[in-house]
Amino acid sequence: MEFPDRCDLQDLLDPQPLPSFARVRYDPATATLDTPLETVREELGRLPLDELEPGATVAVGLGSRGIHRIADIAAETVATLDERGFEPIIVPAMGSHGGATPEGQREILAALGISEERVGAPIEAAMAVEQLDEVDVGDTATPVYFSAAALEADAVLVINRIKPHTNFTGRIESGCCKMLAVGLGKQRGAQAFHSTALAEGYVPTIEALTAAIRDSTPLLGGLALVENFHEELGHIEAIPAPELKTREPELLERATAEMATLPADDIDLLVVDELGKEISGAGMDTNVIGRYRVINAPDPDEPSIDLIYARGLTEKTKGNGNGIGLADITRRRAIEQLDLQKVYANALTSGSLSKAKLPPVAPDDELALRIALPALGGYDPATARIVWIENTTALAEFRVSEALAAALESDDNVTVLERERLRFEDGTATFDA
After folding, report:
1. Which residues of 402-430 are buried (b: 16+ CB within 10 A; e: fewer)?
2. Which DSSP helix (H) or strand (E) runs through 353?
3. DUF362 domain spans which residues (predicted)?
4. Which one of 81, 246, 319, 332 has the minimum C-beta count within 10 Å?
5. Which fold would CATH assign to domain 36-258?
6. Residue-averaged pLDDT of the chain
7. Nearest 5°: phi and psi at 98?
């Protein structure tokens, strides 16, 4: 597809006066776990490993998210299981991610630092599933699929981060239960789940499928990880299978209180340097940008962001730019990074089609801002509230326009580091002190 280049657009878009910017540090109080690997080893002892025979195989489910020290945690889990006389295997638990192919899912794990050599266990990435059961969720009969590779093992354990989800809110959101219901269902299970969840609700669907999986598989439980504001590990806890339904909501409350957010709720323009699946299932954390864009889940009231400009993709997302449809403007560089097969596999499986839509494509940063600033309506560089971030997890330091910097002066958690000037080199944005 050909998009208009600079010579096609520049005469249609007047240059815009730019605000001055400030680079700020945002540092709310938070706690970090000092000895995460020791904690992993201790917590695994809370699971019913003594019930397994020596030499038993244990399938360890791992997802596609860029969780703090996830490769170290996976390796420590494998080492602990090895020392107990078991044979661990790694099973990707990421639904349709990686283009719904074994090669793609291995590629995602490798981008997260997870390889057979690194963790010391084989990776069984086959997409084959078996149907365990069929459950009624509301008025919808839903098949329950589960990874065939995981079912061949003598026991199953999942490792995942507990956090607010990007499509819905409820007592159970992202975590071990959802990884069981969706991630280990591979593409077929993920599609069945999302079809039902869109009709009957996400939480009832997760609860019904998790209960069926718990009854039909040798499930040990989950290793739950909670990150703090700085995306560092603040808590690690092993949850035995019977306790998942009651304990995970309690950990979700902690994760919600400590999650990374912006210090302002009323923003005119948010500029995001990169989006990716390891950052969020939606490419950009919808709890940070205030947009779900899901059929049966209204967008949150806060934050309120008028326009979003997404500049590109992360390297680790390997072309899966699902979530670019949450932006209002992008640039050609981002389009060139897209692997549409991966984007479509993700969007068609989840049923969240809006996240795969392409917004208007600008040839470069300068023309993207020429598009965005007048579209705010009544744009004034002296009052515009603009935030410029690397991505929706890296929120410890970022840039804000001068008007927003002034508004944040009373926030004890925000420190202005230096004033900066935005300029363009061959259309690409750069900042000078």
Report:
1. bbbbebbeeeeebeeeeebebeeeeeebe
2. none
3. 74-273
4. 246
5. Rossmann fold (3.40.50)
6. 94
7. 75, 30
